[in-house]
């Protein structure tokens, strides 16, 4: 018997039991202060949904945060969707009844339909947080005209209209939802968690020494001047006084983070680094650069091979996988961030830039439709179109590094002085116009730790 037939048979056998169990639980009365938050994927890579959970919990709600494995890519779409439908339906129906089901999209197949169906049975209101469009992400792999992509678009548009409340990450997405999908949404911009901040120099030194045990670019290039001196590539510490200072002539620390997927073209950064290397070799007043690209993903091996083929003399590149607590420390220690995220829809903003700005880290970001809602060219960073433009920006920003009067420090000063909305003010401005006044606005309270699981 084919795998799809087995899955369909299992669905037919289990569905009556699921409905019966859910009906019994609904008869007991549903919890008015309970919210279920659903992520069809890795919760660890969904910080916005983690912050939703924290915000709702701090507002007095009982929160259940449900994360699900996407499943191995070798499974066919049909089998995978059937399996996820059964499993998600089972979990939702046997949970304590909820006043709200809070759903991340994408991925929305099959979670939007399942959550809406459960909501109909149990009286729960469906809230969708639109991070992007799932069909546009599928289009990166299969092409925009592929039948699966067109089917996903139809599904997303149809079931997206059945929600009670919609949030989205940009004004551009809000306008697109309203104009093309007839969905009214409220823009809730991402905010950096409280642990994304500038890293004190002593903690920078500890981080560099720790990373130097594994990654050679963080190690000192010369021996310390005495036995009491501890040195990294960027800092040194006097063990007698405990004083940490920057090394004279230290390299610039450039940081980028990625999921190594099709929506980020790292060949742009590599080409820009090659041009920077050439200009440094020609005698321009440029520092050495340590380029750190963090993250895991399907294209990492491909780009690692390309990096290994480069013959850099003034640039060192490493691609570590950092512990959760080290990532914000690294951003808070860096001199410049680079973002190559190019939205599949052109309507979402890269969370990595939000985190960098929380650390007062200036950013060079590849341009797309709504990036101006986050990166203000010439104020908190720079926007580029191609590798040549990025190379010119790197040369300008790192010229005479580290120059206290240089553009990098001016950007950092602007980020420090920028008056962002306070969490409570932002919550009031967003919640009061909503038609669901008892639902506190998520993603607006600072978080004290990276993960939150119920």
From TrEMBL:
Q: Which reaction does it catalyse?
A: an N,N'-diacetylchitobiosyl-diphospho-di-trans,poly-cis-dolichol + GDP-alpha-D-mannose = a beta-D-Man-(1->4)-beta-D-GlcNAc-(1->4)-alpha-D-GlcNAc-diphospho-di-trans,poly-cis-dolichol + GDP + H(+)
Q: What does this protein do?
A: Mannosyltransferase that operates in the biosynthetic pathway of dolichol-linked oligosaccharides, the glycan precursors employed in protein asparagine (N)-glycosylation. The assembly of dolichol-linked oligosaccharides begins on the cytosolic side of the endoplasmic reticulum membrane and finishes in its lumen. The sequential addition of sugars to dolichol pyrophosphate produces dolichol-linked oligosaccharides containing fourteen sugars, including two GlcNAcs, nine mannoses and three glucoses.
Signal peptide positions are: 1-21
MF (Gene Ontology): chitobiosyldiphosphodolichol beta-mannosyltransferase activity
Q: What's the source species for this entry?
A: Ictidomys tridecemlineatus
Which major enzyme category is it? transferase
Name of the featured protein: Chitobiosyldiphosphodolichol beta-mannosyltransferase
Q: Does the keyword Zinc apply?
A: no
Main localization is endoplasmic reticulum
Q: Species lineage, top-down?
A: Eukaryota, Metazoa, Chordata, Craniata, Vertebrata
Provide the membrane topology annotation.
Single-pass membrane protein
Among its keywords, does the record have NADP? no
Keyword set, alphabetical order: Endoplasmic reticulum, Glycosyltransferase, Membrane, Phosphoprotein, Signal, Signal-anchor, Transferase, Transmembrane, Transmembrane helix
Q: In which pathway does it act?
A: Protein modification; protein glycosylation
Q: Which family does it belong to?
A: Belongs to the glycosyltransferase group 1 family. Glycosyltransferase 33 subfamily.
Q: What is its EC number?
A: 2.4.1.142
Compartments where located: Endoplasmic reticulum membrane
Instruction: Name the GO cellular-component terms.
Output: endoplasmic reticulum membrane
